[in-house]
Amino acid sequence: MANRKSAALFDEPGCTTNRAKSDTQRKIGCSARSLAPGAAAGGCAFDGAKIALQPIADAAHLVHGPIACEGNSWDSRHALSSGPQLFRTGMTTDLSELDIIHGGEKKLYRAIKAIVERFRPPAVFVYVTCVPALTGDDVETVCAVASEDFATPVIPVDAPGFVGSKSLGNKLAGKVLLERVIGTREPATVTACDINLIGEYNVAGELWQVKPLLDRLGIRILAAITGDGRYADVASAHRARVNMVVCSQAMVALARGMEERFGIPFFEGSFYGIGNTSDALRRLADHLVRAGAPADLADRTEALIAGEEQRTNDVLARYRLQLTGKRVLLYTGGVKSWSVVSALHELGMTVVGTSVRKSTAEDQDRIRDLLGEEAMLVGQVPAKEMYRRLRAGEADILMSGGRTQFVALKTKTPWLDINQERDDAYAGYDGIASLARRLHGTLTSPVWAEVRRPAPWTLTGLAS
Amino acid sequence: MDTYGLGVMNAARAPSKPCAIKPLKLSPALGGALAFLGLNRALPLLHGSQGCTAFALVLAVRHFREAIPLQTTAMSEINAILGGTDNLEQAIDTIFKRAAPAVIGICSTALTETRDDDIAGDLKLIRGRHPEWGDLAVVYAKTPDFLGSLEQGWAAAVEAIVEALVPPLAGPRRSGSVNVLAGSHLTPGDVEALREMIEAFGLTPIILPDLSGSLDGHVPDDHVPTTLGGTDAEAIARMGQSVLTLAVGEQMRDAAAALERKCGVPFQVFGRLTGLAACDRFVAKLMAISGATAPEWVRRQRSRLVDAMLDSHASVSNRQVAVAGEPDMIRAVAGFLGDLGVHTAVAVTPTVAPDLAAVVGGRLIVGDLDDLETALGEAEAGDVDLIIANSHGEEIARSCGVPLYRAGFPIFDRLGAGHRVTVGYEGSRELLFALANLFIEYGHHQRAAGLAPSANPIGGAREHAPASSH
Ligand code: SF4
User: Fold this and answer.
1) Is residue A129 lining ligand 1, measured as CB closer than 6 Å?
2) Domain check: are A307 and A331 in the same one?
3) Which end of chain A is least crowded, N or C, by CB within 10 Å?
4) ipTM more than 0.85?
5) Residue B2 above 50 pLDDT?
6) Among A69, A70, A94, which residue has the most ligand 1 atoms within 8 Å of its CB, making it the best to mutate?
7) pTM of the model
8) Nearest residue to B364 (alpha-carbon basis) of B346, B352, B379
């Protein structure tokens, strides 16, 4: 599978960042920079592809490679399913030395066979990892033959770790969906209010915080791509009237491709924060009405927004007093920095810094607009620097992923998880209320004062 | 239902299974990295592509709930084709300049061992080009994915450390100095308990690796980019002068043998240090080397374990468990349970370990958690009272309606994985109580369910018997 065509992925006219770049800059791409040896590692392309596709809950996800790729990572993400749990079952060809020497194709074929016979999934995604990519296993052909033999779509996902970062893997996954999945089935019914949410993975159940709002408006999620996903839904996503790309620069290419191929307009939005949520609902309604949905949808949407905003603000009032003016240092993968920033502003908090290490220039502009000049945009912050800042009291709380958690906690600074592995859902109106509750709980915990107490032996002047 | 194969009595890989489902196996490079984390001022470096490091890191962070120093040589597709020497050199140099560690522990991955690169040879050449690195120790452990699981990677790293950092001519024997080679199944808490036990006999242990110094969850006064605590390189250099090596876990046998070959330090392997007889053997050995008798607190601890065994025997005897994990964990837990009259009905291990058949009375499977689930499905209801496995066992336990005792790696859904002590008299007692309490709680439910009338309910007004609702 030498022809990975990664370069073509960056030819992304739908991305304003890219449009603004010169030709050479564009070729370099926005996330293909290779990591320097001796640095702390981020996730690989395989990781990114798996994050994007694994939420398709009824499909089997088979990782073709030696043990590290799946053995160390299976069932570690908190994308949730309301039904099938097959997606959580780690499956890998677990290549041995002999498999690597002689080629893993036969084993892969047998693995697909065993999985199809046992689990009868609607589809099998086969992830190519570094070693079989290096030794040249023809996964494409194995999958084609297996699809035929077992009358089940077997879809190769050619995103071995060494081609790049997690976000490149996201994109490659989008490409797989566009080229091999979407448009291969027809939905049982279509309505004038069908939408897709792209890049929403239902982490901690966030999709379920949004869906009831859409239900009340009569807006149907034809496919969530891919949160709480079902293969058949994703495969028939091409009949939606509008696509919303949820906080995901990496998935814009997919939306763009669907626009070109199926004429589905798209917009980028977010469900983090009151303003963003209301805005997203408005834009969804607006697109749908323009595409032929009943005209009263707009009014009903406004009514819902007014009621929800009122209700949410009442809830937030309980927490606002203690949250107002608190300084947050935000350290995320970057794709959702801007939307989280505006959510935090709604809580009256001050964002003293946010990471833009994976954000595009466009995201950075958005953040600058929101934060003005005083906040710092930080790139990759080495653990030592993070420690120093927190130790110096530059922020009242760090919001980050699990990996920086213990750097923060060692400085005895409050911390809140906002990445993949988190247990709390922060989307929609209920989501911001949960976020406020969690922030409030963390910031007002008596434990901070308690753990900062000096040890008895550091106190001088006591009787000896 | 036993399937036989591989020439190993009652140990068999599920016949012709072409893939692992719910893998139990972990990457050896992760095991190697964890071993290097037990050295002071060390930085493990995975030689491979970045994702391998990221996954290993995330898992270790979730288990220990500590920031984990771990770096990557960041092999790209092009590097993988052309060879990784440049990446290796650049990575070491960067780490040397930025973090100034005492030891860099290199663990290879499948990607960098597939080409058959001569990593050891390359390292010599690289070293020659960098006199400025001075006494930076660079240790290379061969840990490709296809050579076992976490335990093998850990063992390979410890052996590599012995080979690289213990000089053959170490100097005169130091009476009272004993080496402890600690297996990957020991928690930082276990290591600490071992140290206290050994010191109680007036002996000075050199423990390798020593996670109790680095991953014991202390709050340091400043941030360091390397490990802070763990075995010092200088102490390792003195291991050749010790009078004896105590190898804890079968996995430490090769490293202990290497040390003997190199410096003539004899060794004894303790397959487990959980359980009365096992601890007694250990204490007897400590008495023999030190010439000292056991101090009062050790005697009290033994007495308390004996008492705990008396108190719990009714609750545990004739119970049945299923265990899944790396071989030394199974040796410790299943072995101890065997002493107590608990039958291990099923044991699943990711790698072949022939001697386990002697420890596990029931079925021994080389496989994954899916094999465990299948075996439990085939068992009669009530055949298994408890599952002992890592956090991935949670779903299986729930679907079988059997409690889970979390043991092994990773444990990411409970706090304190690094602090649990299951070695020594006291650790054995703690483990016994934890298991017995689960038997008691679950047995109570089970008996109640068994006794409640399912037909002809008591009383005229009720339609359904409250069978198992509780
Ligand atoms: S970098 Fe390659 S070998 Fe490592 S986990 Fe990612 S896909 Fe697997």
Assistant:
1) yes
2) no
3) C
4) yes
5) no
6) A69
7) 0.91
8) B346
